[in-house]
Amino acid sequence: MTKVQTEEKVILVKDDELCTMKINVTRSLFSFYCKKHLESEQIRQNFMLMLNLVHTYKIKYVMGQARALHHLNAQDNHWLCTNIIPKVEASTVLKWARIEHPNSMLEFNSNQIKQKLNKTGKVQFQSFMDEESALLWLFDEV
């Protein structure tokens, strides 16, 4: 018996010097690739765009590659926890994977996000060192 390969439908939403955003409609996956460190306003604009896309496409899986982010300042971290996390919890998102350097300044933020999401259990959040591991976890292929 041969396995039938289906071609995945991918939409390139944004691609500039700062980041790339894609939606894999077939897998219900939103992907964000950070190319450079983002300042507060850029972080907030991109998260708001992500929420809009999650709502529009009923996204179930989110993967953010944040290796280029050096840190998230206290104000942005607070904004993320009070404005973005509740909206992600109220959305169709089931799992959110973030790829970052181990022992980076982002690790503290990731732990806060994970604790906040674990309180309700509506969305699973996990940090990874590589994209392959993140994708395996997102789609339960571990």
Helix tally equals: 4
Strand order of the largest sheet: 1-2-3-4-5-6
CATH superfamily, called what?
STAS domain
- Biggest sheet, in brief? 6 strands, mixed
Described by the principal axes of the CA atoms, the overall outline is globular
Number of strands: 6
Order of helices and strands: EEEHEHEHEH
Number of domains: 1
Relative strand content: 15-25%
Sequence stretches where pLDDT stays below 50 over 5 or more residues: none
Query: Under the CATH scheme, which class?
Result: Alpha Beta
Helical content (DSSP H or I, runs of 4+): 40-55%
> Mind telling me which CATH architecture this is?
2-Layer Sandwich
Mean pLDDT across every amino acid position: 88
Would you give the CATH topology? Transcription Regulator spoIIAA
- What is the CA-CA span between the terminal residues? 24 Å
Rg value: 15 Å
The SS-based structural class is alpha/beta
Word description of this protein:
By secondary structure, this protein is an alpha/beta fold. The protein is built from 4 helices and 6 strands; from the N terminus they run E-E-E-H-E-H-E-H-E-H. It has a single domain (10-138), classed as STAS domain (Transcription Regulator spoIIAA). The protein is 40% helix and 23% strand. Helix 2 packs parallel to helix 3 (106-120). The model has no long low-confidence stretch (mean pLDDT 88).
